[in-house]
Amino acid sequence: MEQLDVLIVGAGAAGLFCAGSALRQGRRVAVLDHARDPGEKIRISGGGRCNFTNLATAPDRFLSGNPRFAASALARCTPEDFVGLVDRAGIAWHEKTQGQLFCDGKATQITRMLLDRMKGADLRMQTTLNGIRHDGTGFVADTSSGPIRAARLIVATGGKSIPKMGATGIAYDIAEQFGLRLVEPRAGLVPLTFAEQELVLCRPLAGVSVEAEIRHGGARFRDALLFTHRGLSGPVILQISSFWRPGETLLIDLAPDRDVAGDLKATRSGAGGATLASALGRILPDRLAAAICDQAGLTQARLADQSNARLEAVGARVNRWQVRLVGTEGYRTAEVTVGGVDTRDLDARTMQARKVPGLYFIGECVDVTGWLGGYNFQWAWASADAAGRAG
Ligand code: FDA
Q: What are the structural domains, with CATH classification, of the chain?
């Protein structure tokens, strides 16, 4: 039977980077993946331009049962280290906003760079991992092209998000088989869906976008919010979705920095025959302003006729919109899986299972989930490098 030093399962961001790091330790390395091409999520990431890191990377940009777990790996493989590789590969990039670095050209340049970095490792695509066992001296992987023995087995098969792209959740099965605990996986960075009652009111708003601020579960984000046919999306919703649990109410400020009731009162005196909807339309997109007035039964109402109490109620609807969302769009569209292999059962310096020498978990399958904005790739690089370099 074939014998390797390191077998990496998963040729995504973490697996490919790990192979390059393990090769530098002089090891015999193979990477296998059931997909046709490596780095499929890299290819579609960042709208095709791959938001490959974030300059503001710090442990507090990640959700995890142990918020300090990621610190060691992140400190030893930094955004600047990755940018150094990108520069040496001659890949042009730019900072979009808030430290988010994107390729100027196609995301596939990043995959090409990772493949160049792991030249010398054996890459086996269209090879499925069906299961693993330990035979007393090493791991035996049962694959669609036969068994492979390896002293170290590195699980880089990602989470459950986007099954259509090959996500399987097999990492969780392997973790449980070897006695590691799991933090229940759930969809993250995902659009949220309304209850039927809200849907009727909000469906006509599909396509409307507005800058919003949301505080929830100790997190606070401000970015674009998008109404969809099913609920809410846009960066601010994706961010908060990782902190939100089904049934929880969100408090959304649809006009941050504006005291809407105060502004409406101030314009009321010289308003003449202007409608409330038109006054609100100076603060919010017209369709949203009209929908809020319709819902309050104030479609044609003149601003000049409104009492303070009524304007305060409208202001509260904008600055403190309480909305009950019932679910998420699920793994079908989720950018990541929150939860995963419990960090209490992994060594933070190497990603090795504490009680199973030679077994490692890296990337998205671990209970470390970044905010939107390049943090998840930075975690993939950092955790991969920690495992690849482990002595
Ligand atoms: P990843 O999912 O990349 O790779 C796992 C690999 O394992 C896959 O190739 C899969 O085929 C393989 N596999 C699974 N089961 C197997 C089995 N049984 N046998 C063999 N192979 C198996 N993040 C970011 O930082 N910036 C961004 O711009 C984006 N953009 C983005 C857009 C979209 C649409 C999505 C869905 C996600 C993002 N992300 C992102 C998140 C990012 O893509 C994600 O965090 C990383 O790809 C995780 O890397 P991994 O290598 O851990 O898993």
A: 2-187+337-389 (3.50.50.60), 192-328 (2.40.30.10)
- Which segments of 99-241 does DSSP mark as H helices, in order? 108-117, 170-177, 196-202, 235-241
Q: Of 139, 180, 181, 179, nearest to 4 (Cα)?
A: 139
Distance from C-alpha of 167 to C-alpha of 365, rounded to nearest angstrom:
10
State if residue 174 touches ligand 1 by the CB under 6 angstroms criterion. Answer: no
Does the beta carbon of 20 sit less than 6 angstroms from any atom of ligand 1? no
The residue ranking higher by pLDDT, 218 or 88, is: 88
- Residue to probe by mutation, ligand 1, list 45, 61, 238, 242, most atoms within 8 Å of CB: 45
Question: Would you state the structure tokens that stand for residue 117, as one six-digit string?
Answer: 């970095």
pLDDT at 271: 79
- What count of other Cβ atoms lies within 10 Å of the Cβ of residue 85? 18
> Is the C-beta atom of 129 inside 6 A of ligand 1?
yes
The span from the CA of 261 to the CA of 253, in Å, is: 13
Q: Is the CB of 11 under 6 A from ligand 1?
A: yes
Above 90 in pLDDT, residue 101?
yes
**pLDDT attached to residue 195:** 84
Token pair 């050209």 is found at: 105
Regarding the beta carbon of 15 and ligand 1, being less than 6 Å apart is answered yes
Q: Would residue 120 be called left, alpha or beta, if left means φ above 0 and alpha means ψ between -120 and 50 degrees? A: left
Mutation to probe ligand 1, out of 95, 106, 157 (largest number of atoms < 8 A from CB): 157
**pLDDT for the residue numbered 119:** 97
Determine whether the shortest distance from the Cβ of 125 to ligand 1 is under 6 A: no
pLDDT reported for residue 293: 96
Q: Is the CB of 39 under 6 A from ligand 1?
A: no
Look up the ipTM and state it: 0.99
Strand partners, 53: 101
| Across 21-25, 72-76, 297-301, least confident range | 297-301
Centre of ligand 1 to C-alpha 238, Å, is 17
